[in-house]
Amino acid sequence: MRTRHALAGAALGAVMALGVLAAPAQAAPIQAGPSASAAVSVNTPPTTQVWGHYGSYLNQFECNIAGSLSGYSRWYCVYSDYSDLWELYVDFNS
């Protein structure tokens, strides 16, 4: 039994070594300098998301319309089996 494990380990080691040797060389990552056109500063803390219930609708179409007209940039609709309605949730910080 030990011989079988030793052979299996040796075979696996050989396959891994061949994989490393046969792998194509990868270029080093490019170090980008600071850019004036960066959309978000590195020092800007992430915004906190505050999700809350915004409304209930009879169908998905109404929920999607209400979400797009809500004025919030992040929102989603989900069907609730409990209420048998479409529930709209928005991120109040968006």
TrEMBL record:
The keyword Signal applies. Residues 1-27 form the signal peptide. Keywords: Signal. The keyword Signal applies. This is Secreted protein. It comes from Streptomyces fumanus. The lineage of its organism: Bacteria, Bacillati, Actinomycetota, Actinomycetes, Kitasatosporales.
